[in-house]
Amino acid sequence: GGAGWAAHVGHELPRLRVALAREESLCHLPLIVAQQLGYFRGEGLDVQLVELADGELALGALSAGRAEAVSGAYLTVLRQQLRGQALQQIVLQGRAPQVSLGVSMRQLPAYRELPDLRGKRIGMSSSGAMSDVLARVMLAKAAIRPGDVRWVPLGSIQRAVLALRAGQVDALSHLDPGMTQLEQKGELRTIADPRTLKGAQEVFGGPLPGTCVFASQHMVSRHPQACQALVNGVVRGLRWLQTAQPQDIIKTVPEAHMMGDRALYLASFYRLRESYSPDGLLNGEAARTAWSVMSSLGDVREADAQAVLDRSYTNEFVQKARLRLSKA
Predict the structure, then answer these.
(1) Cβ proximity of 122 and 151 under 8 Å
(2) What are phi and psi of 55, to 5 degrees?
(3) DSSP-assigned letter for residue 15
(4) What tens digit of pLDDT does each residue of 73-108 get?
């Protein structure tokens, strides 16, 4: 029961399973760093990362009770709220999405502007994913309807890189380190880049939250100590990332996450560094940007925006974590 979380800290660690998409992206880095550096264990919490093929399966694991929390997109929390599933974000990992959109230099060497994408094949990870959202938002700017292009869901980063190289797509919206790799090799020209705060402002009209840790509101209200311990660890991970040097990253991140290319991983990290939240807080402006992006894509039926937003996140755990860190 609820008392168990705190009572066992002395001898056996309570376990908390966090589901996440098994991808080579750097989206979950704050969580992974906190795990590797023993921050959760230091809180008396045994965190088990449950890696699944994609974000949909991670969400499914939460619904089925195979995980207590998920590391995934804040837009997912909003979408599920609108479907009547009471989920709540408890700590923000990314204050900008780690996706970008580019055109193939081989397929579209003469590309000049967004209308050139009409009728083309656009690769993204999966329907509803952040890469899909970015592509749809950019097409809408050129009054191109989703039906005016061919969508090619590619799943993993490696598959996306291979598809672009093989000429199977004309444009690609996806995650790093894949996008940085294609850019470095001159195979891709970036045309929309919300990986920085300035870029997110240009693309989405404001700060758009990226990856966060969320759980069911039932879990949050029933196990506040476990949630607090989890958030404490992630906030420390975020703080560590602010000043981490290349050798720190190499020493801490599991080799398996680096796609066999440390230099590329580091180049991607520096490219994305600004996208990580410095403190784990989700502010009202960022939440409202997420809402307006979803509304612009027609994902929102009649709903009281403020009520849904208020339920979708809490900063309570993060504020306590920050207070504790400032005293440490």
Answers:
(1) yes
(2) -65, -35
(3) E
(4) 999 999 999 999 999 999 999 999 999 999 999 999
